[in-house]
Amino acid sequence: MSSVRAAWQERSLPEYDELQYDCLPFAQTHPARLATLALLFGLKPPAVETCRVLELGCGNGNNLIPMAGALPGARFVGIDLSARQVENGQALIEAAGLTNIELRHADIASSDAQDGAFDYIVAHGVYSWVPPKVRDRVLEICRANLAPNGVAYVSYNTLPGWSSNGMIRDMMLFQARDIEDPAARMRAGRGLLDFLAGAIPDTPYGTLAREEIAFIQQQPDEYVAHDHMGECNDPVYFHQFAEHAARHRLKYLAEAEFSVMGLGGLPPQTIAAMRKLAPDIVAFEQLTDVLRHRSFRQTLLVHDNVPIDRRLGAHSIAPLAIASPVAVAPRSPSSLPDAPVVFVARNGKRFGIGNALTRAALLHLIDRWPESVRFAELYETARRALPPVPGLAGMRGDSGPEALGVELLQLYAAGIAELRAWDPEPSATISEQPMTSRLARLQAQRGSELTTLLHQPLRLDPFERALVPLLDGKRNLATLAEALAANGVGAARHGDHRSPVRSDASAALRNALLRLAKAGALLKNRLPETVARITTAASAAFAPLVALEFDHA
Predict the structure, then answer these.
(1) Which domain does 534 fall in, by range?
(2) What does the pLDDT look like over 205-257, one tens digit per residue?
């Protein structure tokens, strides 16, 4: 969410600064994500390692700064109208010693092309929240400042899905129509939500409304103030956005979340009928929005003269690396030795893989997470994991790289696998001297949240918050345990519940490091020895370090 929208509200910027939006890293905007999708559709995007990135409405830079820390050879520029947000971001930049990023206190409408071309342009949380004149300026910048093979990211609220959300927003604004005090306006809006949550009848409309009300009720005041009670929030149909982009000689490439472009769950006859009703990509996506009741899009745009190959297949992922965050479901005691492997996705859904080669590939990716594996290496590893074909010496029953590529593409569309054009090199192992990035150590010193190498926010418990600043790659595990004990680090708290006292330093350290590694927060420390790969058996690999009693805190 960008703070730039506040300039176009009738209420003052000081009021906006008083209720600052908590900007977070947003993985969908990372140049590596944009490059991955461009490569997938046959483009030749600029190299991520040396790219130039512009973010419109950067807020305090919490999205852009971690990119700059991870990509020292790239250049980043952020623009935001809030001087206070820019000042806060600049303080973090200076503390982190970053020299490849600049945040500017500036107005989007008055910005010009003086900085030349950018390989990637990001406008997250801007388009729907500013008036038409500024929306036009956003796309004008995307056309004028986007490099020939560059990619622009623009997020916005869409119809028809946002129609029910918009009704709730309109009623919140109506309820607070005569109130000037920001806190009182918020109380009035939330009071209406509380009433509606219990009063709306149990109908199809009521189900939709209650889902949106429950979502809003869980959000902090700053989110509600700027998203649902701000003066400007105008959703559009996808075809209207595409037409607006076309007027600026930009065209649709894809969505930043590839999985939302799939048609899973629809019968073949429905998909065939859709292709007849909507022969071009814009019409097809618009029809998909109606079927899915989509309310939000994260659209990628390119120049209208850039060729796009939408015939995806195994060749599409050949130049990419693959990773997967899924897990293997524990076997029950009554399971037979040859029982099928059951996988568990991040959303908790369980699934199986019929193809033995694809199953072996996914098992290898799970073992390597959060690291990625190049397609050629993955195929060879999976092929060697298959049992030999009886009676055929040296032959294994694999279905070939073409079939594996197609199935991996399907797993990507289902959100089970990730494709990466650039690998941030997170560590799947815990070295004798574990380390995080300098920025992560600084973030842990300043608060309870850091940005992982996968560009995801990670909230830290008190033990982890004390540990992360020490992970500079110079301390071994015993030294880390001793330093934590010397500082009187107490048990971690989760919500209102206190975990038991950590009387075993090795167990406490192991659990924290494993969680950091699984989240992609540990860097590869180029040492020959490692302590544990992230597996369910990792705990046995840790030798006892120092038995220490941690104080309650």
Answers:
(1) 429-541
(2) 888 888 889 988 888 887 888 778 877 889 999 999 999 999 999 999 999 99
Residues 243-269 as b/e (b if ≥16 CB within 10 A, e otherwise) read ebbeebebbbbbbbebebeeeeeeeee
Q: Is residue 182 part of a domain?
A: yes
Token pair, residue 148, equals: 């020939």
Q: Has residue 311 been placed in a domain?
A: no
Structure tokens at 482: 């001793």
State if pTM tops 0.85.
yes
* Rounded Cα gap, residues 70 and 175, in angstroms: 45
480 part of a folded domain: yes
| Same domain flag for 257 and 355 | no
Q: Rounded distance, CA 226 to CA 21, Å?
A: 8
Q: How far apart are CA 50 and CA 260, in angstroms?
A: 29
CA triplet 120, 293, 190: central angle to 5 degrees? 90
Phi, psi of 319 (to 5 degrees): -85, 5
Answer yes or no: is 342 within a domain.
yes
Enumerate the β-bridge partners of residue 459: 449
**Maximum Cα interatomic distance, the chain, rounded to a whole number of Å:** 84
Q: What is the DSSP letter of 136?
A: H
- Span 300-307, mean pLDDT? 97
The residue among 143, 112, 108, 110 whose CA lies nearest residue 126 is: 108
- For the chain, the domain total comes to 4
Strands 146-159 and 236-237: parallel
Measure the CA–CA gap between 463 and 459, rounded to whole angstroms.
Answer: 12
Return the amino acid letter for 229. Answer: M
Closest CA to 521 of 467, 482, 479, 481: 467
* CA angle at 469 for the pair 466 and 474, rounded to the nearest 5°: 120
Query: Quick one: which of 180, 155, 67, 157 has its CA closest to 118?
Result: 67
Using CA atoms, how far residue 104 sits from 31, 87, 140, 462, 526, in Å, is: 20, 9, 19, 34, 37
d(CA 48, CA 25): 17
> Helices then strands (H, E): number in the chain?
20, 20
Beta pairing class for 296-303 and 146-159:
antiparallel
Instruction: Answer yes or no: are the C-beta atoms of 421 and 48 closer than 8 Å.
Output: yes
